[in-house]
Amino acid sequence: MQLLQRFRQLRYQKPLGIRLLAAILLYSSAITLIATGTQLWLDYRYELSAIDERLLQIESSSLNSLANSLWEISPAQIQVQLDGLLQLPDVRYLEITSPFNDFYVAGNKPTTDSIERHYPLEHYDAGRGSIPVGQLTLILSLDEVYSRLGDKVLVILASQGIKTFLVSIFILTLFHRLITQHLGSMATYARRLKLDHLDTPLTLKRNAKHKDDELSQVVDAMNNMRRSMLHDMSKREDAERSLAKLNTELEQRVIDRTKELKERNQELHETLATLRSTQQQLVESEKMAALGGLVAGVAHEINTPIGIGFTAASYLADQANLYQQHNPDDPLANTAVESSQLICQNLERAAQLINAFKRVSVDQSSEQCRRFDLIQYLDEVLLSLKPRLKQCKPEIVIHAPSHFIIDSYPGCYYQIFTNMILNSLIHGFEDRPGGVITIDVKPHTDRLIVDYRDNGVGIPDDWLRKVFEPFMTTKRNEGCSGLGMHIAFNLVSQLLQGHIYCLANAEGAHFRLDLPVVLNKVLPKPLKTEKKPAATQAVSVTDTSLPGNT
C-alpha cells in the first residue's frame, strides 16, 4: 500500500521520469518478447531435428533386426528389442503387426501432441529377394520438448526482465541526474517567480563541464528574460509616475474647464431660450402684421366695389321685378329677375368672406381682459348655439369642476368653442343626429388643460399638421372658408398666450388647449393700418361660425 502511494506521489512530482520509465519498460519488454519468441522457435526447430535424427537412427539400426526376429518367429527376442527402443528419449509407444496375425506392443499411446511414424519390416532372401514380414508403428511424444521449451522460456524471461529493469532504473537515474532534477528546479523557480521578486537569478547545481548544453541555454534565456522584465518594469514605473502626474494636472484642468463650460453652457441655454422666445414672438408678430395688412387691403379695397356692385344689383332686381309685374309674359323680364337675384346672392357670399377676413386679424384692444367663471361661460356658449344645434342635436358632455375662475378674454373662448363645435357638426357628424361631444377641463397648477373630443368621422393623419393653416377645408364646395381653426389658433397663441394641438384619435377628432389661468397683461399690440373711406356703404353679412377647417 505504501509502495502504491509512493508511486502515485512520484507520478505527480516527476511525471516525465515516470513516462520515460514506462516507455523504456514497454519497448524493452516488446524487444524481450520478440527475442524470446525467436529463441523458442529456433529451439523448437532444433528439438524437432533431434527427433528426426533419432528416427533415422532407429530406421538404420533396428528395422533389419526386428524383421529377422519376425522371420525367425522369436517373440521373446522381438519383445526385448521393442523394450529397448522404448528406452529411447521421447519414444512412448511401439507396435508390430504381421500378415500372420502376430501382434507385439511396448509402452502406452500418449494423449497429447505426438509424432507418429510407420515403417515396413522386410526380410531379405538371396533366392527370393525382399519378403514383407510386418509393419512397425512408432509414436514419439512432444511433452518433454514442450517442458524443456517452457523451462527455457522462464529462464529467458526472468533474465531479460531483470536486465530490462536494471537498465531502465539506470537510464531513469541517469536521466534524473542530468535533466529531470534541473527541470524541476526551473519549474520551482518559475512558480515562485513574481513581478515584485525578480532580483534572484536562476542557477543550477551542475558541473562546469555541462555549462554549454541545452539546459544552460534555457537558464540563460530565463535570466535574460528576468533582466528584460526588470528593465521594462523600471521604465513602466517611470512612465506610470509621469502619467499619474499628468493625470493629476489633466484632472485639475478638466475640473476647471468643466466648471467654465457649465457656466458658459448655462449662459448659452439662457441666451438660446431668450432667442427662441424672441424669435417666436417676432415670427408671430410678423405673421400677424402681414395678416393685418392683408385684411386691411382686402376689407377696404374689395369691400368698396362689392358694395357698389351689390347696390347696383339690388336696384336692378327691384326694376326687374317692377317690369315683370307689368309684363309677366316677357321672357326677358324673367331672365333679368333671375340674373339679378344670382348676382345679389354671390355678392352677399363675398361680403361674408370679407367679414371672415376681418376676424383673422386678432385685435387685442377689441375686448377687455377680465375675471370670469369658465364653466358658467361654457354653459352660455352652448345656450347661444342652441338654435344651431336643433338640427343635429348632439350630446355635449362637460367634465369640469363646478366653478373655475380665470383671468382672460371671454370673447376669445366664445369664438374658439363656437368654431370647434360647429366644425364637429358640419365635418364630424355631417349634420346628422347621434353625435357626442366631450369637453374635459382640468386645472394644472397655474395652467388650464382643455381636451375637446367628438365621435365623428375624425381627421386623417395627413391633415393633423395642416388643420390650423388658413383656407384649409374639405367642404369648400359647400360654402366653408377654411378659416375657423386658423382663427382659433391665432386667438390661442396670441391673445390667450397658450397652445392648441390636434392629436391623433381613432374615434373622431381630438383637440387639446394648454392655456394660462391668469394672462400676462404685457402683450405686443398688433399693427394698425389706415382705413380708406368707402365710396359706397357695403353690405356686411356676419358669419360667426366660420366652419371648414377639418
From TrEMBL:
<feature type="coiled-coil region">
    <location>
        <begin position="236"/>
        <end position="278"/>
    </location>
</feature>
<feature type="domain" description="HAMP">
    <location>
        <begin position="177"/>
        <end position="234"/>
    </location>
</feature>
<dbReference type="Pfam" id="PF17149">
    <property type="entry name" value="CHASE5"/>
</dbReference>
<dbReference type="InterPro" id="IPR003661">
    <property type="entry name" value="HisK_dim/P_dom"/>
</dbReference>
<dbReference type="InterPro" id="IPR005467">
    <property type="entry name" value="His_kinase_dom"/>
</dbReference>
<keyword id="KW-0812">Transmembrane</keyword>
<feature type="transmembrane region" description="Helical">
    <location>
        <begin position="20"/>
        <end position="42"/>
    </location>
</feature>
<keyword id="KW-1133">Transmembrane helix</keyword>
<dbReference type="InterPro" id="IPR003660">
    <property type="entry name" value="HAMP_dom"/>
</dbReference>
<keyword id="KW-0418">Kinase</keyword>
<keyword id="KW-0175">Coiled coil</keyword>
<dbReference type="Pfam" id="PF02518">
    <property type="entry name" value="HATPase_c"/>
</dbReference>
<dbReference type="InterPro" id="IPR036097">
    <property type="entry name" value="HisK_dim/P_sf"/>
</dbReference>
<keyword id="KW-0597">Phosphoprotein</keyword>
<dbReference type="InterPro" id="IPR004358">
    <property type="entry name" value="Sig_transdc_His_kin-like_C"/>
</dbReference>
<dbReference type="GO" id="GO:0000155">
    <property type="term" value="F:phosphorelay sensor kinase activity"/>
</dbReference>
<feature type="domain" description="Histidine kinase">
    <location>
        <begin position="297"/>
        <end position="519"/>
    </location>
</feature>
<dbReference type="GO" id="GO:0016020">
    <property type="term" value="C:membrane"/>
</dbReference>
<keyword id="KW-0472">Membrane</keyword>
<protein>
    <recommendedName>
        <fullName>histidine kinase</fullName>
        <ecNumber>2.7.13.3</ecNumber>
    </recommendedName>
</protein>
<dbReference type="InterPro" id="IPR003594">
    <property type="entry name" value="HATPase_dom"/>
</dbReference>
<keyword id="KW-0808">Transferase</keyword>
<dbReference type="InterPro" id="IPR033414">
    <property type="entry name" value="Sensor_dom"/>
</dbReference>
<dbReference type="InterPro" id="IPR036890">
    <property type="entry name" value="HATPase_C_sf"/>
</dbReference>
